[in-house]
Write a structure and sequence with these properties.
The complex is a heterotrimer of chains A (405), B (227) and C (409).
Chain A (H helix, E strand, L loop, with lengths): L1 H9 L3 H41 L2 E5 H5 L10 H10 L3 E15 L4 E9 L1 H7 L6 E4 L9 E5 H7 L6 E7 L5 E12 L4 H5 L1 E5 H8 L6 E6 L5 H11 L4 E5 H4 L1 H39 L1 H10 L3 H37 L1 E2 L4 H5 L6 E2 L5 H27 L3 H6 L3
Parallel strand pairs in A: 3-8, 5-7
Antiparallel strand pairs in A: 1-9, 1-10, 2-3, 2-6, 2-9, 4-7, 5-8, 6-7, 11-12
Chain B lengths: L2 E10 L7 E11 L4 E5 L6 H8 L7 E6 L2 E2 L5 H11 E4 L11 H12 L3 H14 L15 H13 L5 E5 L7 H18 L2 E6 L2 H6 L2 E6 L2 E7 L1
Parallel strand pairs in B: 3-8, 3-9, 6-7, 7-8
Antiparallel strand pairs in B: 1-2, 1-4, 4-5, 9-10
Helix pairs in contact in B: 3-4, 3-5, 4-5, 5-6
Chain C lengths: L1 H9 L3 H41 L2 E4 L3 H4 L6 E2 L2 H9 L3 E16 L2 E10 L1 H8 L5 E4 L9 E4 H7 L6 E7 L5 E12 L4 H4 L2 E5 H7 L5 E2 L1 E6 L5 H11 L5 E4 H4 L1 H39 L1 H9 L4 H36 L2 E2 L2 H10 L4 E2 L5 H27 L3 H6 L6
Parallel strand pairs in C: 4-9, 6-8
Antiparallel strand pairs in C: 1-11, 1-12, 2-10, 3-4, 3-7, 3-11, 5-8, 6-9, 7-8, 13-14
Classes of the chains: A alpha+beta (405), B alpha/beta (227), C alpha+beta (409).
Chain lengths: 405, 227, 409
């Protein structure tokens, strides 16, 4: 009965209630958009990092992690690769021979990481093979082919077929190098990655280095979440001179981002809800004071004060619930639309490209987010109702009834 | 059921330079079934008296006993419950809940008492029939005339079967026709059900119908006559 | 008279006034704090990037921005730099050689960036000597180098060890040299800290065989806001001979990141004001509608409608001003405290920010325009919320107001 009365009371002043609900819808749609945007952006960053850079699990020689010496290759790598291939959760793996060096053209030079890859397996682990913008993927034919990024190509004035010299320190500690020809030009979503990496055939690089083996094994799984448990399994299966790391350990920043996201979302919601609460308190106070006489009458005919208190709380709860539902409905609609069309980042794409965010953003909002929003808004409304509702408890019926509004 | 006052007194601003003695040491007794009009000019204190009799206001001194229960001693919660069960109120401005229909308004106090939905509905419909508003039972107060609203108020006051009904200037905002109709209804209910009616009024039409008239002036009982 | 009346009217409904003003105050305080923090952070990062790396303006060979090649150089003589020197807004001029090399030590190698500078001048500009974590600073004729901490760790080098630099010099000549490490720098720009070799200009010119040429002239202005104009003027002076680039052009990624962060913050701010604005609108509207009878009486007794509108405006203005004063009052102590004690981030957050290439410090910028900006927004909001209520009062029908009155909605 009180519930029904509360609902009807809410609509006594249609204008006021509508304004309040509009505020909630406006605010919620805005907050959800921002949350979706951030989640989408960071999600993109993480997905790209996993796809292109970290994969799900990486294995290195433990010494290599402290001191990337070309001699610190993975211990018993063949055995390890065999056991990895046995695991059902593994989708693909790639063993790389890596060294830091320099790439130089007639025009200019750049410090880069030289990645010696196995052509077949690398194509399965990263999307590199499918993202060659000019020229083609590496093949077994030809002498010393290399893949460079379009950024590197720009800097060094390279085209497909251009000659470059790759220099680095070999296993004996001598600076060595050789001429390579650009076979293809690639572009990844992360421009900072592009700038710093070139790709050659393992065999070619090992021949120059004078040492065999792998410095890095990158593993791609079917399920992202399996990375953490699988890491331990693998570590147990291999020598303790090797270190197996999951993608969050490889790039701790990714883990930080995930943690941070929850916090910043909560803060945004909190601020919005706080501002909203002021509005709700104000509106409900107006509503309560307008009805002082009516409350006096209610007390006179026999309605207990705590019931009137409850009535006001229910009215505010209805306000919160209605606003939250409308706001969420609006947000869902907006998100559906944006997820369909995507948000093009246009000019800002370069800045974000440094982090690996795609140029078209698809906002993401999870069910948990919506739930959190709903609960927070309703809870805040109820809290906001306390102050106005308290006002009624202090009144004596006779005084209440004497009030001419 | 008897209402009795002993040296009932109400003073506003007792400590200031200009205290207002609204009711000065009143002794009064009202029996079950009476149809009483408390009459007097504005400011005579009759509203204050009625408020104290109904437990809405507390006296400065003296007591109000209803069936030997000193209602001034009751705690707020008990007092509210007492009013709910035993006293009906009719106000000058009808004071119906604007968001409820006539029927829902009448049911209201019965629902507070905890009666079943069916019971409430039945009695409310019956009462509305008695006051001649069956066709209007689903309308909200905004759609009813003053007279109609006051009739709903009467039905509401009677629905929880109170022992007595207090009406503060019930006809003040009504035209002659509505006043006559209203008084008819109230007299009927008084005679049929035996409910005690206590009015405060300065409407001569009401005073003519009352069986007992108490004249109040400057907070004092000037006359108490039966007619 | 109107002002006095307006002020008193405000306090008839004390609670409502206070609540509305408080909501405004909250929005203002939060927004102001956030913007000061943001702008402080940007200014700090721009400052760092400028002082330690790009400067505010660079004069470069027209092809250099694309090629980054050691072949695209500028003369290092005073005749060339004269137009810049004589420009009133240019405070500092620093010649530099910046190029790549392969650094090797022991059996490790890494691509590094070599910065050839005039040490005393650079130190004057950026205080780089203060960033030395080990060793001593360079002098102009040293045959030694300074390296970044990250690089030192990677190559396992300490003060006194030697580093080999190997690269491509001017017009195809080989650049090669062996240099002792004189000191290790904690370079404030993390992404450079891992690959920086700092050496005297003369030494760099020898390494790359450039003779009396430089890759860039780095400039700093007196007045930051006059930067675009200065760039335009210098471009005219050096038309064809050289490319004039400002810091945004040199670090487009940083410029865009700043832009994006700013955009995000501003959207959040408008959202906040929007929500509060609805509340303000509701309050003003209710206030107006409730007092229709009162307004009717005022108009009937001879108050000009124009003056009534003015009265309402003044009342609303007072509420807004109250909110502003309250908001400033709340935020001022925080702003001042954090101005003198900037927040230093630690732990995971700090790591993340360092990875992104930003300084993990949150300094506050206190400048008038930030405050004026916020106050303007509040006043603008107020104006927006007043439109409808004022229109209602303007349209107020005297008779129905006197009759009806007190009826909101």
């Amino acid at each position: 009965m009180l519930v029904k009365l509360a609902w009807r009371n809410l609509w006594r002043n249609k204008l006021r209630t509508s304004i309040m609900l509009s505020a909630m819808v406006f605010g919620l749609m805005g907050v959800v958009s921002m949350m979706g945007f951030m989640t989408g952006m960071y999600g993109s960053m993480i997905d790209n990092a996993i796809a292109w850079q970290t994969s799900h699990i990486q294995v290195h020689n433990s010494r290599y992690l402290n001191n990337p010496d070309i001699n610190s290759t993975i211990v018993d790598s063949h055995q390890l690769i065999a056991s990895i291939e046995q695991l059902p959760q593994v989708r693909a793996l790639s063993a790389r021979f890596v060294t830091d060096g320099m790439v130089a053209s007639a025009r200019s030079a750049r410090g880069v990481r030289i990645n010696g890859i196995d052509l077949e397996s690398e194509a399965l682990v990263t999307p590199l093979a499918a993202n060659i913008r000019q020229g083609e993927w590496l093949s077994l034919e030809g002498r010393n082919p290399v893949l460079v990024s379009n950024k590197t190509a720009e800097r060094l004035r390279l085209r497909v077929g251009s000659k470059v010299v790759l220099t680095f320190t070999n296993a004996s500690g001598d600076v060595t190098g050789a001429a390579f020809r650009v076979r293809g030009i690639f572009k990844t979503p992360t421009s900072s990655f592009d700038e710093g990496n070139v790709f050659v055939r393992r065999g070619d690089l090992m021949a120059l280095a004078g040492i065999e083996g792998s410095h890095e094994i990158a593993i791609l799984l079917d399920d992202e979440k399996a990375a953490f448990s699988l890491r331990d399994v693998l570590q147990a299966q291999t020598s303790n001179q090797n270190t197996v790391r999951d993608w969050q350990q490889v790039q701790p920043m990714l883990a930080s981002i995930i943690n941070q996201m929850g916090t910043s979302n909560a803060i945004m919601l909190g601020i919005f809800v706080l501002a909203l609460s002021f509005g709700i308190v104000n509106i409900m106070l107006m509503s309560v004071f307008e009805r002082t006489r009516e409350f006096g009458v209610l007390m006179a005919v026999g309605m207990q004060k705590y019931n009137i208190f409850l009535l006001i709380m229910l009215e505010t709860a209805w306000l919160g619930i209605t606003g939250a539902l409308l706001g969420i409905a609006g947000s869902v609609g907006l998100m559906r639309l944006l997820q369909h069309t995507g948000v093009s980042l246009g000019k800002l794409a370069e800045g974000l490209g440094a982090f690996g965010v795609d140029t078209t953003l698809y906002p993401q909002v999870s069910l948990t987010d919506y739930q959190m929003i709903f609960i927070t808004v309703v809870a805040a409304s109820i809290l906001a109702a306390l102050y106005p509702a308290r006002q009624i408890l202090k009144q004596r019926p006779v005084d209440a009834m004497a009030e001419k509004h | 059921m008897t209402i009795q006052t002993n040296q009932l007194c109400k003073t506003y601003n007792p400590d200031s330079d200009f205290p207002v003695h609204a009711v000065k040491s009143l002794d009064l007794a009202i029996e079950q079934g009476e149809f009483v009009a408390v009459m007097g000019p504005s400011g005579s204190g009759k509203t204050t008296l009625l408020n104290m009799l109904g437990g809405i206001d507390t006296p400065t001194s003296g007591e109000v006993r209803i069936d030997d229960c000193d209602i001034c001693e009751l705690k707020e919660k008990e007092l509210i419950a007492f009013r709910r069960d035993h006293i009906g109120f009719i106000f000058q401005d009808y004071s119906l809940l604007p968001v409820l229909t006539a029927l829902e308004n009448v049911e209201f106090v019965m629902q507070l008492q905890g009666h079943s939905e069916k019971e409430c509905r039945q009695r409310a419909s019956a009462l509305l029939k008695q006051v001649g508003l069956t066709d209007q039972q689903h309308k909200t107060p905004a759609k009813l005339s003053g007279g109609q609203q006051q009739r709903v108020a009467v039905a509401r006051a009677l629905a929880p079967r109170p022992r007595f009904v207090m009406a503060d200037e019930p006809t003040a905002n009504l035209d002659a026709q509505s006043t006559a109709e209203l008084l008819d209804i109230m007299q009927q209910l008084n005679e049929k059900e035996g409910t005690t009616f206590i009015f405060s009024t300065h409407d001569p039409r009401v005073i003519k119908r009352a069986r007992r008239v108490i004249v109040f002036e400057d907070g004092e009982l000037k006359e108490d006559r039966r007619q | 008279m109107l002002v006095k009346l307006a002020w008193r009217n405000l306090w008839r409904q004390k609670r409502r006034t206070v609540l509305t003003a408080s909501a405004l105050a909250l929005a203002l305080a939060l927004s102001l704090f956030m913007r000061c923090l943001q702008e402080g952070s940007y200014a700090n990062n721009i400052e760092n990037a400028a002082r330690f790396y790009t400067g505010l303006i660079q004069i470069q060979h027209p092809e250099f921005s694309d090629s980054q090649s050691i072949d695209d150089l500028l003369p290092a003589d005073s005749q060339f730099i004269a137009p810049a020197k004589s420009h009133p807004n240019i405070k500092r001029i620093l010649p530099r050689i910046e190029s790549f090399a392969l650094a090797a030590a022991g059996d490790k190698s890494k691509g590094v960036m070599v910065m050839g500078v005039i040490p005393e001048q650079e130190n004057d500009y950026s205080g780089i000597a203060g960033k030395l974590s080990e060793g001593t600073f360079l002098s102009a004729d040293d045959q030694q180098v300074l390296i970044g901490e990250g690089l030192a760790r990677f190559l396992n080098l300490q003060v006194g060890d030697e580093i080999i630099l190997y690269g491509q010099g001017y017009r195809g000549q080989t650049a090669a040299g062996l240099y002792p490490v004189k000191g290790i720098l904690d370079f404030p720009m993390p992404q450079l800290d891992n690959q920086l070799v700092y050496m005297p200009l003369a030494l760099a010119q020898t390494l790359y065989s450039t003779e009396q040429q430089v890759t860039a002239w780095v400039l700093h202005t007196r007045i930051l806001s006059a930067l675009p104009q200065t760039v335009a003027e210098l471009s005219a002076d050096y038309d064809g001979l050289a490319n004039i680039r400002d810091w945004q052009d040199l670090s487009p990624e940083m410029a865009q990141q700043i832009l994006m962060d700013k955009a995000g913050g501003i959207i959040m701010m408008y959202l906040l004001y929007g929500v509060v604005g609805f509340g303000l609108f509701a309050t003003l509207l209710m206030m107006t509608l409730e007092r229709q009878r009162e307004f009717g009486v005022m108009l009937a007794t001879g108050l000009l409608r124009k003056k009534l509108l003015a009265l309402i405006s003044i009342e609303s203005l007072f509420i807004a001003l109250l909110g502003v004063v309250l908001g400033l009052g709340i935020s001022a102590p925080f702003l001042i405290w954090f101005y003198y004690n900037p927040i230093v981030l630690t732990g995971e957050t700090a790591e993340m920010i360092l990875e992104m290439g930003w300084d993990p410090v949150l300094p506050i910028l206190l400048e008038p325009w930030l405050f004026v900006n916020q106050i303007t927004i509040v006043l603008g909001l107020l104006l927006l919320c007043l439109i409808y209520p004022m229109w209602r009062v303007y349209q107020l029908d005297l008779v129905s107001a006197l009759k009806g009155g007190g009826h909101a909605g």
